[in-house]
Amino acid sequence: MPWKSLLKLPDFGLFRQTADFRLSVSTLRINGILPSRGDVQVQAENLATQLKQDSVVEDISTDRGVISFKVNRKLLAQVSESALPHDRIRVFACCSSPNIAKKFHAGHLRSTIIGNFIANLKQTLGNNVIRMNYLGDWGMQFGLLGAGFGQFGSEEKLKQNPLQHLFEVYVRMNKEAEHNEDMKQAARDFFKQLEQHESQAVSLWQQFRQITVDEYQHIYKRLGVHFDIYSGESFHQDQAQEVVQQLQSQGLLKTSEKGTGVVDLSPAGDMNSVCTVLRSDGTTLYITRDIAAAIDRKEKYNFDEMIYVTDKSQVNHFNQLFQILLVMGHSWADRCQHVPFGLVQGMSTRTGEVVFLEDVLDEARARMLHNMSQAKTTKEMDNPEDTAEKVGISALLVQDFRGPLLSDYRFDWDRMLQAQGDTGVFLQYTHARLCSLLQRNADIDATTFDPSLLLEQTSMTILQHLLRYDEVLYQSAQDLQPKHLVNFLLKLCHLTASAHRELLVKGSPPDVAQARLRLFRGSCSVLANGMRILGMCPVDKM
Description:
Layout: H1 3-6, E1 21-24, H2 25-30, H3 40-50, E2 57-63, E3 66-71, H4 73-78, E4 90-95, H5 109-124, E5 128-135, H6 140-152, H7 155-160, H8 162-179, H9 181-195, H10 199-223, E6 229-232, H11 237-249, E7 253-255, E8 261-264, E9 274-278, H12 286-301, E10 305-311, H13 315-327, E11 336-341, E12 344-345, E13 348-349, E14 352-353, H14 357-374, H15 384-401, E15 409-410, H16 413-416, H17 424-440, H18 457-467, H19 469-479, H20 483-502, H21 510-534
Parallel strand pairs: 4-5, 4-10, 5-6, 10-11, 12-15
Antiparallel strand pairs: 1-3, 2-3, 7-8, 8-9, 13-14
Helix pairs in contact: 6-8, 6-9, 8-9, 9-10, 11-12, 12-13, 14-15, 15-17, 17-20, 17-21, 18-20, 18-21, 19-20, 20-21
């Protein structure tokens, strides 16, 4: 455990005036660093005598088993707010993963934005990050769609509104196949043609895939999300058959009573817990292709860590995936991680239930534009729609990221778009206000300043908070939860709001104005950097 994680900022109480950091002897005892027996105050005093004051720590004191540290005030004001890079590793992040031939469903929003946050965070900490969008572009649903397009498809409608038409064809074919065995068989036959690379089936599938990717890239651009690689299940169809052969040669593939190919994952080897990797007709399954994809990525990119971001319904799937990789002898599967998330409840627009993500983004922009037009403080801007889009997306992100990712949450338009309170709108408003302050005082040179002039309690509280930025990024990198960074930034905004009232720049002596402006500039820089990690685009006017 890093020593930094044992050091805590003082609570807002007795320690606030006297200590910048404190170390509890109880924490050291719990972590096995100090003996668990004996008087905690005596232990604190003994430890404190071994700690020396230096140019950084100007005072060390103890009270009731807690060691308090006071940092050199001038040095504190000079500390850089930038985060320290961690050890560089190669991280492979796989997220979003919508199904081709369908419009971008709002249900894929969480995977996309959480995966983007994780990739941004890892990259900020100095890692080499490879961002992959692993599309759902294979499987029996394309048997339904391919056969359905032959029955109900129209080239004319495909040109006019491609994804909407494909969606309608799929829904109709799926409904027909429920009670029509011939339709069901036609779907199976088309998918088998795909797996056997029959040119007509492959050509139609390629057309559907390209139409979808073009549409999705427009959505990703609006979200500020990019990918290094667009891959999909289809890339691993042949490799999936190789996986089946490897499982067979290793004696891991068993045949069930139904004739399917399974891998026994039960601890006792009694087939109590099996994973199906092959249908009775010899075609592969989603997990078979996932096994092949993981092996292929390790060979191609030699990642140190691979992260999958999907909803919590797939927890068992990924447990089985990692187990199968391990029993196949791939020890690196221990460095694969699944980040599950809960469901969003009650997401709807004024017109009713939402199906597509574009509806959500349009609604967020429209509502934000309306709120901005009603607010008396809104500044004139060149492109209010663009600002409304950026602020609306920030509101979506903060609502999504404030709690634990695994929890379900209820979508609330009104609360999400409030300018006051802990919202993405508040983050953007604070950033714009800081930019305005810096712009109004652009004639003041804050590159050099006297840190001894930042000794007010308000200044010290902000500086102490800024010092925690690196710690918060480290904490976020440990559990891949954005809530730590969101809450850190929200608190920074509240502290900055108080500083706006108490630490005036205009009318202050030049050297004081210079020091205070430097403080606001540091806050603005950390706020902007943190917002970008979360996936926001900071605005400088609203």
